[in-house]
Structure formats: C-alpha cells, structure tokens
Amino acid sequence: MTDPLERTLVRSLAERVGGPVDTADLAASALRRGRSQRRRRQALAGFGAAVVVAAAGMTVLDPLSGGRVAGVPPQAGAVPVPGVPSSPPAGWRAPTPPVAVGVPGAAQTPDLVGADPGVLHFSVDGLTIGAERVTWAVESGSERVGVTVGGRYTEIALARDVGRLDLLVQGQDVDPTAAWSEPETSAATVGGLPATLYVQRSDQAEAFHLRWKPAPGVWAQVYGHGGWGRSAEAVSIAARVRLDTAARCAAPVRLPVWTHPDTPLGCRVTMAGTDQPDAEGRLTRLVEVVLTVGRRHGRVEVGVRRRSVDGTAAGERLGGRPAYRTTTARGEHRLVVPDFDGLRIELTASAGYAVPQVARVAAGLRLDGDPEEPATWPIWPSTGRRPSPTGQVD
C-alpha cells in the first residue's frame, strides 16, 4: 500500500471512530491524495538530482546519511542507534522546497539573495534524502535549508553579507554549557574556488562551518554539528550546492488584503520526515510555517502549526472559531486560534501593531493548498497567482 493512501485511510478512519465508515468516501479521498502526490513529485523533480545520478548508473554515497547510497532510504528494522529515532517502515520522506519554475538562481541574480522572502535562490542535490526533519527559510537577509539525518544536523545557507552567516552560526542549537575549543581553520577548495573550514570541538561533539564565495557578491556556508569527524564531509556537501535553480517558500494560507501594504520580511517552513499525530490524532508532516510581515515600527508573525491543545480557555471567537489572547515573555501580543480548520494559527505582534489590527488579520486568514504538499501552497508574497500541478505559475 502506498504511503499517501495509508495516510488518507488512517486519517479518515480516525475521524470516524465510533461510527460507520463510508468506504466510497474513503476511496474518493484516497484518489485525491494520490493525485496530489503525483503533482508533488512532478513539481519537485528538479530539487532532488540524486535520481539523475541513479539513472546514469553511478553509485554515489550520501555523506549526510552515514554513507548510504544516495537515493536509497534506510532499511526499516535496522539496528537502532542511541539518541537517533528509528526509521519508519516506509523510510524517512520529508517534503522538499518546491521548485520556483522560471525564477533564476543566485548565479544569475546574486543581488536578490536574501531579498525576496518567497524565494531561495539555490538548491542542494539530494539534501533531503533520509531526512527526519527539513527546514527551509528566508529570513534576516539569508537563505537556508537545514536537515536532520541520523540525529545530526546540517545546514546550507547563502547571504550577500558574511555577517548574516556569522549570526546563523552563533544561533545554532549546540550545548552552551560545553567547553568548546577555539575554531581551528584550514584552507579548502569548492569547485575550484578558495574556501575556509572552521572546526570547534567539545568533549562530546564537533561543530564546523565551511565558507566560500560561489558567485560575485554572494557568500555560501555549510554548517554541521553532531558526532565526530563530520567536518570531512563539508567539501563534498558544498559541491552539491547549485545556483542555477530556485525554490519557493510559502505557507498553506493566504493573508488578508489588509496586510499587503506591509513589507514581507520572512518565511520559514519545517516539515517532518514521517507522519506525526496532532492533538486530535490526525496524521501530518507539517511541523510549522511562519510568515513575517512588518513596517517601520513593528512586525507580525503568522504561525501555522499542527493542531495542539494547551489547556487555555478560549475567551473569544474569530470567524466563528474559538480563540484567545496572551502575551509573550517579551511583552508581545499573541492571538491564538487552536483549531483553524485542522491547524493551529498563532499571530504574534510587536510594538506598532494594536490588538484589533492583529484580530483583523486572523479573521481574514484562509487556508489555501494542501498542508501536506508545499508544492500546492500559494505564491508568497501574494501576487494573485498560484502554482499549477506541474509547478508552473498560473
């Protein structure tokens, strides 16, 4: 049985526990999901070039997955490694950033790197193979794709300002209490271009980042942590970075017209490599999506997450849905809709946005596209267009 069909059946059955099951409805739902899966495969074909390698009859080991043959998922039932989640029966299948058809990469438009929150101007061949989790983001002047494979994290990023890459390294989730060594530097080469490798070690782990300039005015970085000896993989990972393609960053929602005068500032998507239950037991691979818009004196983050229950009583209703307001530790207003047609919506506003304005944003939101299929999400920032089943823009 195919993975999409399994997911559809499980969801449909879970929603009907305690009552009769309409088999005709199940079959129709499964057919829709199968078509969606085919659309996703077509739209994402350009991002995973490992298929091309396999077609050429070459055997390539994937350094991000412990030396496994590229394109071959880990075998279910393999001997578990402490601290590393066991592979699901169908293997890890994290969605990948959808291809931005017709959009030039960083090689053609280096001045746009980090400037358009809806576009990543690069791709990495085979990066998400076997990934337990994948994140892609355009925020604060940088573009990045990060994956967790075998409990180890790897991130590839582009920026026009090398200081933006410094901030990414400083913000990584490593043990702050460990005694880290001073960075050891060594010269390297990526595609004939000079690069510098930085390695730091503690008693328990190793962290590294490799940095080079793949195009005029553009800096690139490969970062990794977890385990020992991973710095030796840095150059081979960097060699897989492509600047001739682009990918989209978006969300399965449309923002109301009210937000359009505001400046789009950021986009971040995190997807899991296997189905995980939400608060109602429905299976999903969506972890979170965050869109950020702002103006000179403030910003609003629109968070879309899997449905969860936190025990907070809903004190109001927005668009007929229960909602409540709260304040973050930094004093920001937050409006939460725990169940927005099966998803959790959180809007967090800094100074410059009043609570009624945020409430109007929440009331004007609407879902658009399949939350499980990033290739079906609308173009963002909004242009009134949306991707077609083949990834072209209608």
TrEMBL record:
Chain spans, region Disordered: 372-394
Transmembrane segments: 43-61
Keywords from the UniProt entry: Membrane, Transmembrane, Transmembrane helix
Domain of life: Bacteria
Record has Transmembrane as a keyword: yes
Name of protein: Uncharacterized protein
